[in-house]
Amino acid sequence: MKYKILIILLVVAVSGCKNEEKNNPKIETEHNHTRSEPKSENKKTLSPHTSAMAMIGDAHIHIDYSSPGVRNRIIFGGLLAYDQVWQAGAHMATWLETNKDLEIDGKELKAGKYGFFVIPNQEEWTVIFNRNWNQHGKDDYTENDDVLRFKVTPQISEDIKEHLEYKVNKTTETSGTISMSWEKVTIEFPFEIK
Questions:
Q1: Could you tell me the sign of the dihedral formed by the alpha carbons of 134, 137, 139, 141, in that order?
Q2: 10 Å Cβ neighbour count for 138?
Q3: Residue 50: which H helix or E strand, with range?
Q4: Nearest 10 degrees: CA dihedral of 159, 162, 166, 169?
Q5: Local structure of residue 145 (DSSP, 8 states)
Q6: CA–CA separation, 101 and 188 (whole Å)
Q7: Looking at the record, which segments are called Disordered (predicted)?
């Protein structure tokens, strides 16, 4: 009889321990004497996807882009050749969307969504709005799809902007500026809401 009671107690203790293991992973680790593998850290994205936007009056301006890093490289005139079209970001072409018509450089940009491209140069940059906003890099870029082109003078800084950054800034209830900064270069241009 003693042995039956001892066996019953042993069975109850073991099954209780197993139930506890199911509900408590820490106990399972202790019982099995196994270590869980450390979680592998996700590799940091080199060109994170981001956006810049602002409301100016009742106009919503939205810029969508991937933001590459400098990573100790010469960007303009190095990684990116002068006088060649660049999609103004990494991976997919950067795009700008506006729900109101804009006036930029004395020209009209109708409400809509546009690919945003630039042609960098040491003296002046060409800024391009292209009707083909959904393309990988500049793979499908064609000048025939440009809806607006104008020139801007780059501002050069001694400080390095590690990641590409766009800003949409409100200057009045009907106007603002769009800027793009990367490495030591910033370009900026004003716009008016029509």
A1: positive
A2: 17
A3: strand 49-56
A4: -40
A5: G
A6: 19
A7: 21-48
Task: Give the distance, in angstroms, between the CA of residue 25 and the centroid of all CA atoms in the same chain.
Answer: 38
pLDDT in tens, 7-65: 554 444 444 544 444 444 443 333 333 333 344 445 678 899 999 999 999 999 999 99
Q: 42, exposed or middle or buried, with CB in 10 Å at 0-12, 13-18, 19+?
A: exposed
End-to-end CA separation in angstroms for the chain: 97
pLDDT in tens, 159-189: 999 999 999 999 999 999 999 999 999 999 9
Residue with tokens 């069975």: 11
- The pair of structure tokens assigned to 118 is 């630039």
> What pTM did the predictor assign?
0.76
Residue carrying structure tokens 């009907």: 174
Domain ranges for the chain, please list them. Answer: 2-32, 49-193
Of the candidates 33, 24, 57, the residue with the CA atom closest to the CA atom of residue 173: 57
Residue corresponding to tokens 């990641």:
163
Task: Work out whether strand 107-109 and strand 59-66 pair parallel, antiparallel, or are unpaired.
Answer: unpaired
Question: Strand pairing partners for 52?
Answer: 63
SS3 state of residue 188: strand
Cβ atoms of 102 and 194 within 8 Å: the answer is yes
| 139-148 per-position pLDDT tens digit | 899 999 999 9
Q: Which phi and psi angles does 88 have, rounded to 5°?
A: 60, 35
